[in-house]
TrEMBL record:
InterPro entries: OMP/PagP_B-barrel, OMPW. Belongs to the OmpW/AlkL family. The keyword Signal applies. Keywords: Signal. It comes from the Bacteria. The lineage of its organism: Bacteria, Pseudomonadati, Pseudomonadota, Alphaproteobacteria, Rhodobacterales. Residues 1-23 form the signal peptide. This is Outer membrane beta-barrel protein.
């Protein structure tokens, strides 16, 4: 919840830059390409009787957004698979998992009269886990649905191009089994920092 509060605080701070000029028009499309850094929260729940820790990872990310109204867009976030090592206190290294976190958000882009264009969004995330491996046996993680909150800032470098910095908090919780037996819930809840080039069509 601390990370969610920070994301909301950033959203409020960015909103203070708002002004009277429209940023995006109804019917516009944007496509973004960049990298995303997934940083799970500390203390990722209790698994197999110990405290679980999920490490961070960086991968290419992609966004597509369609503006249903002026300044109001529906965005899909996609990425190449993220890979994380999992450790458990008292055990050490417990396994490796991959995941894909597609996220659908409704974003509001604040109109400004400058090259700086902040936005905020709220959406839903679906995370699917695969290629789990563990020296302890057969590890499986259930897929997850959760809320996603994001805030970003675009800097226009041309009429149709912008550089984007984005922070996104995602609620990801997954039940884990080892050799078919439940061992606990991994509470990942990462902060995702993205840097992208965004092009408007």
């Amino acid at each position: 919840m601390t990370r969610m509060a920070a994301a909301l605080a950033l959203s409020t701070a960015l909103a203070t830059l708002a002004g009277p000029l429209a940023a995006q028009s109804q019917g516009d499309w944007t496509v973004g390409v960049g990298v995303g850094y997934v940083n799970p929260k500390s203390n990722n729940g209790t698994m197999a009787g110990g405290i679980a820790t999920v490490d961070d990872n960086t991968q290419p990310i992609f966004t597509v957004e369609y503006f249903i109204r002026d300044n109001l867009g529906i965005e899909l976030l996609a990425a190449t698979p993220f890979k994380h090592d999992v450790s458990i206190s008292g055990i050490g290294y417990a396994g490796t998992v991959k995941h894909l976190p597609p996220t659908l958000s409704l974003n509001y882009h604040f109109p400004t009269n400058s090259a700086w264009k902040p936005y905020v969004g709220l959406g839903v995330n679906y995370t699917t886990f695969f290629e789990e491996s563990s020296p302890l046996g057969t590890l499986k993680l259930d897929d997850s649905f959760g809320v996603a909150v994001n805030a970003g800032l675009d800097y226009q470098i041309s009429d149709r191009g912008a550089l984007r910095l984005n922070a996104r908090w995602i609620n990801i919780e997954t039940d884990a089994t080892l050799n078919g037996a439940a061992i606990g819930t991994a509470e990942i809840d990462p902060l995702v920092i993205g840097v992208q080039y965004v092009h408007r069509f």
